[in-house]
Amino acid sequence: MSRLLSKDRIIAPPNFNRWLIAPAALGIHLCIGSVYAWSLFNPALIKRLGVVTSAADDWSLKSVVWIFTVAIVFLGLSAALTGKWLEQVGPRMVGVVSTCCWSGGFVLGGTGILTGQLWLLYLGYGVIGGCGLGLGYVSPVSTLIRWFPDRRGMATGIAIMGFGGGAMLAKPLIGGLIKFYYRAADYLGPVEQLELVTKGGRRLVEVGGELREVVVVGANDLAAMIEPGREGVYLVATGSAGVAETFFTLGAIYFVIMLCAAFAYRVPAAGWKPAGWEPPPENDGHGKMITQHEVDIDEALKTPQFYQLWIVLCFNVTAGIGVLAVAQTMITEIFGSSLPGIVDAEFAATYVLMISLFNMLGRFIWASASDYLGRRLTYWIFFSLGIALYCSIPYVALQVSATPEVSWLVMFYGATLLIFTMYGGGFATIPAYLADMFGTRYVGGIHGRLLTAWSTAGVLGPLAITSLRENAVGRAIGDLVARIEPALFETTFGASTQQLDALVKAKTVTIAKLMEIAPTGTVDPTPSLYNQTMYLMAALLLIALVANACMRPVHPKHHMREGE
Predict the structure, then answer these.
(1) Which of 507, 39, 45, 106 is nearest to 240 (CA)?
(2) Pick from 157, 156, 173, 177: which is nearest to 34 by CA?
(3) Longest CA–CA separation in the chain, Å
(4) Quick one: average pLDDT of 469-474?
(5) In whole angstroms, what is the distance from residue 308 CA to residue 348 CA?
(6) Per-residue pLDDT tens digits for 332-369
């Protein structure tokens, strides 16, 4: 088996068509790129027990968003630690190991969902699946750069376009499978026809002579249901959200596709170059800074350029990845209450699909454009335009709260989709930027080490957006409760405002439920929950802009000498 997977067995014969490598690279990246569709799992994961809405013992949004974070962290760590191994064993071996980790992570994660063991979901999808992500990410990129030295940006755009487009293919898969396996919780009837009891913040109803936990679906909860349902009371721990079964099915599908792609890999023979192509001069007069020298993988860590590019990648990714982790939830919260007839669960899921599409297109278009613009100018565009777009989102949220009009949704949609073209473009352009600065010989290993910036961003982005959102939710609930008559509050929730913390913790009290009894004219605070996060992301892009502006060619003392 080791000989079948070895690097020596996959050296391409003379006159091999290099374009045949592109489908293999795309196949791997389309599968692992489904990680970008993680937010599609969130609505079902936080309703594992309640099914129609979250129950007291259901996992919180913050806890499941962190699974995505763990996966991204282990993506970067595995890519960094296995960079040299990748150069030694070749892309086929790495592709097969990636397949086993990614598919196995789904199976173990599905087991965790089925048994209610959150740590198994973290271990399976987050740790083991994350290692599969890292291994599957770097091998196609370094392989394509070697096959396309004349079009580095386009080559990396082809491979990484698949990673960005993975969520686009995963959307109908995930959505369709969840709906296929979904079974609604048992419906007990309208609230007014049942005698509800509140204990420890939980809502209970007597069923068959014993008190059973229930969840209450109000008018403002309907848009967030997995499948359309009725207002009223539902029995907890009945039905199925369909997410565990979806994990098992996806694991099997990805295993077959990725294994076929891994066996299609080939690498060029030593000294190969495209017919009629000669390397460009180092100074082409356009400030592109394309070196003809090589820098060793360990020596690259001693250059300031490596750390400048680390900052460029880290802060560009941080600005987008936090939004990606909660995309479906975010658009529902900003526009769901203001435009309920338009922004429902299906609309939000389609929004995730569009993010994936523009993320994918941005990877190919921006990376290809960088071959002509130069990498540094391309990142100038990313950061300067990105700052303006992130700052526009709080303005949209403020306006839609005051005047609920579709035009604000269109503006938000356009701004965020443009942001994600540049987010994807940043990923696709960075390997070519590395090849320009350090040469192509060790670009795979250097790229792997630079992906620790992605790991860091995978923590910073979701941490920022969930923590700041959580604080904003707490403040909003406090403000709303202060506006509501205590007697009305107690009648609605079966407990006084003195038990507010327990009611919030049990998910009995939410912003949506408080807005149903708030005084007329009260502005829904939900659309503004992400404002602080957007301003923070704009500030990070400003730092990345400065790091990119200071980029200079690598000092000759770091170059490898001839014969090394």
Answers:
(1) 45
(2) 173
(3) 85
(4) 88
(5) 36
(6) 888 877 787 788 777 887 887 788 788 888 888 898 88
Category of 199 on φ-ψ map: left (φ > 0), alpha (ψ -120 to 50) or beta: beta
Specify the CATH number for 2-183+239-269+291-484+519-558; select among 3.40.50.2000, 3.40.50.410, 1.20.1250.20, 3.40.720.10. 1.20.1250.20
Beta bridge partners of 189: 233
Contact 333, 220 (CB under 8 A): no
* pLDDT above 70 (res 425): yes
CA gap 105, 35 in Å, rounded: 12
For helices 327-335 and 304-325, angle between their N-to-C axes, nearest 10 degrees: 50
| Confidence label for 320 from pLDDT (cuts 50, 70 and 90) | confident
> What are the beta bridge partners of residue 205?
212
CA triple 201-207-211, angle to 5 deg: 35
- Nearby residues of 80 by Cβ (< 8 Å), 6 or more positions away: 134, 448, 449, 451, 452, 455
Which amino acid appears at position 6 of this protein?
S
Task: Report the number of secondary-structure helices (H) and strands (E) in the chain.
Answer: 21, 5
Q: With CA atoms as reference, report the closest residue to 230 among 211, 217, 215.
A: 217
**Cα–Cα distance, 297 to 457 (Å, whole number):** 22
What are the residues facing 233 on neighbouring strands? 189, 216
Question: Could you tell me what percent of the chain has a pLDDT over 90?
Answer: 31
Can you read off the two tokens belonging to residue 61? 């949004």
Domain positions in the chain: 2-183+239-269+291-484+519-558
Give CA–CA dist 186/465, Å, rounded: 34
| pLDDT tens per residue, range 135-168 | 998 888 778 888 887 787 787 787 778 877 787 7
Q: Which amino acid is at 410?
A: V
Cβ-based burial of 407 (10 A; exposed 0-12, middle 13-18, buried ≥19): exposed
